[in-house]
Amino acid sequence: MIQEFFATHNFNLIQFLLVAIGYLMPIPLAFAAVKLWHHYRQERFIMGIKWVLLEIQVPREVVKTPAAMELVFSNALYHKSGKGFWEEFMIGAPWLWFSLEIVSIDGRVHFFIRTPSRIRNLVETQIYAQYPQAKVVEVEDYAFDVPQYSKEGDWNMWGCEFHKLKPDFLPIKSYKDWGDDMKTAVKEEFKVDPITPVIEYLGSLPKGQQVWIQIIVRQSIKKFHDHKTGKHVDFYTAAKNYMFEVLAPFTRMNKDKVEGNRTEVSGMDMRTPKPLESVIKGITDHLDKIHFDCGIRMITLANKKYVSDDDFNNLRRASRLLFRQYAKPQLNELDRINSTQFDAPWSDPTGLALTAMKRRMLNFYRMRTFFHPPIQYAFKYPGFVNMFFPSGKPDIFVLSSEELATLYHFPGMVSETPS
Questions:
Q1: Could you tell me if residue 351 is left (phi over 0), alpha (psi between -120 and 50 degrees) or otherwise beta?
Q2: What is the pLDDT of residue 418?
Q3: Is there a contact between 138 and 253 (Cβ–Cβ < 8 Å)?
Q4: Which residues contact 249 (CB under 8 A, 6 or more apart)?
Q5: Which helix (H) or strand (E) holds 194?
């Protein structure tokens, strides 16, 4: 039949392909045009948002557990809403995001929250509601006190991002996994607070060294691909599907005979083997929480006037291990990605690519960019190209309010660091 078509119309294969491409080309072009328009409208809207950086001056008499910070996140940072076509594509309004930051500057540890100015009052009141003795003040952005990175400049710099090593449904180790140690009734001197190692290390930095940690959050809108239906589903549906998939080999369908030779499934027996009990329990315990899309970024800096290259390398190596206490090997852990480094010397013989990566990392930190990167960094380049010119596409993952409060909360008197 195809041969008759070509014989009748005097087509060859190349001509046919050119005609087919000409007819089909409007489809990808229209898709690209919609994406570019959406990105343009969002950029215009984001440029109009006014931001404030709030520093929380934490009292040493904090005796509350991270559960108090969970309430702050739930009431101040979780803005559950839907957006219609007009609001999302024509106005370009994004879902609002916030930046939770723990920063050490010359050994002085600071807690910051960057928020849109219109939500400032809500954030402040929720912090005071849980921590009445804290003090919240608006401050200038510390991230602009350091000049833009230059290879011959006065500052050494290294940065990276973190993501979950395994699927988002599997939680990292949270404060509740330390058991009774983190209950409010326990005396402070007996508590084991997982954030204490981070604070103690940040408080030990000498003059000229800085470590910046930012956790950027918004309500969870991330979609997951369902391999069975081919559709995109939300976090809760995807987590349940993941559990059923894990337990499928240990599930038996009960089939009953009905009229004729037909059978119907009347129920199922699902038995969780002991090695998987902690996995299923970890998922189900966190399903009851609200969830946030998150991105974590860290930058280490050292002033060459005070810090040698060897000391800076020691700072870089130690800082990237600050999240090890949150690892739960059978479930999940935070893994480092998008580091500003090359593993092979031939990947960047001139050093120009590394300088560009470090500048981009610093700019992304300053702008708190994660969910809406510039269009050229919104996708990952093909494998071979990405080896030499990494796109640095941010990797968004999901944390429950319990996991998030574990990573960012105010330590109590259990932390003895004077800074």
A1: left
A2: 55
A3: no
A4: none
A5: none
